[in-house]
Structure formats: C-alpha cells, structure tokens
Amino acid sequence: MKPFIIRLLVFAVLWAGYLYEHFQHASKLPLLLFISACAIGVYFFLSITKHPFFLFILIDFLILLEEWLSPLPKNMYVLLLFLYLYVEAIFQLSIKKFRLFTAVTFLFSAIVTLLFQNKEVEWLIAFAIFSAISIVLNEYVYEREEQQEMYERLLGEYRRLKRLNYETERSARLEERTRIARDIHDSVGHKLTALLMQLEMLSICEPKDEYEQLKMLVRDSLEETRQAVKALQTEEIEGISSVLQLIRKLESESHIMVHFTTKQGVLTVKLSNEQNIALYRVIQEALTNAMRHAQSREIFVTLGKSAIGDLEFSIKNRIAEPKPFQFGFGLTNIQKRVKGAGGTVHIFQTDCEFIVQGTIPVKEGFND
C-alpha cells in the first residue's frame, strides 16, 4: 500500500505543477480544477482494477482536454505527466494493450499539438521516439514477468517432486523396517518363547539354579527383542528433532532462512505419535506455503508451551502488501491436521505478516 501512496502523491504533485501553469486563466480555472480532480480520482483506481487500460486512456484524455481548454506553449509539466503515465503503463499493461495505448496517446497528442500548440513538430517527433522506446521496454518487462512466472512454476514443481521423492523413499524405508520387525518377531521372538517354555518344563522336572538363570536370560532377551521390534515399527524421528531436520533440509535445498525459536519448557514436552506427525506436517505445510507465496526469504518458526501445558506453534513470514488469500490444499490440510490432533489453528494476515498459529493439546501420560 505504501508504494502506491507514494506514486499517487508524485502524480498529484506533477498535476499540481501542471495546474499552476494555468492559474493565469482565471475564467477557466473552476473547470480545470474539476478535470484535475477527476484525473487524480481515476489514477487512484488504477491499483485496484484488473483492467486498467481504459483508465489510462481516460487520464490521457483528461490531460489533453485541459490542453485543449487552456493551451500553453512548451509546458514542461505536460511532458512529465505523460512520461510518468507511460512508466506506469509499461509495468501494468500487456504488450498488445500497451501498443494500443501508445497509438491512441500519440494520435491525441498529435491532434492537440498540430491544432493548438503552434505546430511544435519537434516535440511530437521526440514524443514518437519515446513511445517507440517505451514499447520495447514494455515487451522486455512483460517477457521478464513471463520468465519469472515460468520459473516459479518450475520451482514449485521441482519442490513437489522433491517432496514426493522424499516421501517415496521414506515409505520404502518404513516398509522395509516393518518387514524386518515382523521377521524378527516371527522368527527370533517365537524361538525365544519356545526356548523359555522348554526351560520351564525342564525346571519343573528337574529344579536347578542353572535353569532359573537361563530362564532369566531368555526373558531379558525376549524383552530386548520386543523393544527392538517396537523401535523398528515407530517413526525414524519424532517431536522437535523431526522439525529440526525438516528446517535443515528446506534451508539447504530452497535457500531460505528459517528463524527457529523454542521457548522455555517446550523441549520437555512429550508428544504422542499422532501429535508428532501433526506438528511435523503442520510446520511442513506452513513452510511450503510461505516459500510459494511470500516475497521474503525469511520465515519465523516459534514453538512454546502454554500455561496449561499445551504445545503452541507459530509460523510467520513477511509480505509486501496484504492481499486476499484463499484456503487451498495446503492451508486446508493444516486445519485438518490440527483438528485431528484435537487442537486449534488460526490463519490470518496483518499489514506486514502472514501468520499460522495454533495449539496442540498434550495428552495426559505424555507430559510428565
């Protein structure tokens, strides 16, 4: 919003200087003031309309209308207004519309110059040269925007494929770990159980201290086997460590800067497996959303602990100017994840930041 206000002020100052040159014509001053107010009002709507072409033409018409009502030779402010308007149009109009805008402006200017400006042809020639240069600049700007848009699409597709590849590898690793855990459970676990039963029978038939020691050793081995199987069937990383690994991965691959802050008490929070997955996915989706839509490469992630022991999270990124946003797949998935974990989430934006913040309740038995 601030850049537009500055542009509006510059346009108003240029027009005020242009109007000052006409103060000597007191008889037409009220009409000139009315036309000036209309021009500044039309310029105000340039930033909020999706089709500014007709507004640019209208501002041109108002400038030339004042020149027709009160023609002045060698009025520098007319040239400055046209130059400023051309610069605005270069960045806002497509190639086809800008060419049409240039043609219409030059045609109107030629008519006014030849009829009311004592046939100052040299000014018209200079204006024609400037119009040709402006067309080239507009083509260059439009092509750069297309290239930037294509680059953003390719970058988004690359990140999507990287995440898909990572998820595929991760699923393959988890599947292999699950297979190994099942094999250990079915082979080693069953054999240890059978060995324990045989030792029980032998100790009944022939009580000996050696059998009791062997039974204790088998029980310990069986318990260690169960713990190993359980460890293989769980996620590779959990809790805060998974978030750290995600941030490290995104920083190295996407060249973003993540400011990660943990408040007092959050590192002692023990989450269930469902809560771990929800926290990881929420931060992952929020970081991905920030990378896709934020102009800044800095993202601020904060984890804390509320007064009642719940886990609080906040992901913020700076924005150049607030624009209406829609809940796409990423933001909707964040809401579903947090809701599935029994928490709450708020997604909103201020004048300078886009914020995703919420809480995940820590279930009893997981936070001591």
Automatic annotation (TrEMBL):
Residues 176-235 form the Signal transduction histidine kinase subgroup 3 dimerisation and phosphoacceptor domain. GO terms for cellular component: membrane. Its EC number is 2.7.13.3. The chain crosses the membrane at residues 29-46, 53-70, 76-93, 100-117, 123-142. It catalyses: ATP + protein L-histidine = ADP + protein N-phospho-L-histidine. Coiled coil: none annotated. GO terms for molecular function: ATP binding; phosphorelay sensor kinase activity; protein dimerization activity. Keywords: ATP-binding, Kinase, Membrane, Nucleotide-binding, Phosphoprotein, Transferase, Transmembrane, Transmembrane helix, Two-component regulatory system. It is an enzyme of class 2 (transferase). This is histidine kinase. It comes from Anoxybacteroides tepidamans.
